[in-house]
Amino acid sequence: MVRIISGDDQLKNLFAGLIENTFYTEIGVADPHVVDYLTQLMLRFVRNDSIFKFRDPTGKRLEEIAGMLIEAENCRDRPKREIHRHIGDFTLFWSGVYPEALKFLKGFDRKDHLLDYREQGKRSYYIASTFEQDPYENEAPILRRLSELYDVCTKGLYSVRKEWELNY
């Protein structure tokens, strides 16, 4: 039987329950801030426009980490911290939830071919976590924790995906 999920609240409850169960019981990470962050990440990335939310100066959608890194270094209209946070989210999402997509995302004909998504995700979360002043002081420790737990989080998100595929 296929369950129908309708509405943002049901989707949030689904992701929150799956992530909490996976991280608390299977992975052994009982950190409510990490669970909440990952739940919000999944909710944001349900929408394709959130996954590819940044654009280059000509308006072209940035679909590769290499382009996002260039934008982070040259940006004038948005905080560098936001781009690095997004790079962490982007790499964690693809590496954890859809690792099979990495063959395309890092294809030989793409700029990301030589990038290590794992290392870049960890590094970008760390860079974003160094912005500790207002209004970022509450999120900085969570981003630092995601940098430290990056590998555990990819494993956990993959388990979450398997669980929803099996039961939903």
Describe this structure in words.
The chain is mainly alpha-helical and 168 residues long. It has one domain. Helix content is 65%, strand content 0%. The chain contains nine helices and no strands. The chain has helices at residues 8-27, 32-45, 48-51, 65-74, 80-96, 102-105, 117-129, 140-148, 150-167. Helix 1 (8-27) packs across helix 9 (150-167), helix 5 runs antiparallel to helix 7 (117-129) and helix 7 (117-129) runs antiparallel to helix 8. It starts with 7 loop residues before the first helix and ends with a helix.
What topology emerges from the helices and strands here?
Layout: H1 8-27, H2 32-45, H3 48-51, H4 65-74, H5 80-96, H6 102-105, H7 117-129, H8 140-148, H9 150-167
Question: What can be said about this structure in brief?
Answer:
By secondary structure, the protein is mainly α.
Features:
168 residues, globular
Q: Helix and strand string, N-terminal first?
A: HHHHHHHHH
Q: Please give the alpha-carbon distance between the first and last residues.
A: 8 Å
The unreliable regions are: none
How much helical structure, as a percent, in the residues?
Answer: 55-70%
**pLDDT averaged over residues:** 92
Shape type: globular
Kindly give the count of domains.
1
Radius of gyration: 16 Å
Derived structural class: mainly alpha
Largest sheet: none
Beta-strand content bin: under 5%
Please tally the β strands and state the result: 0
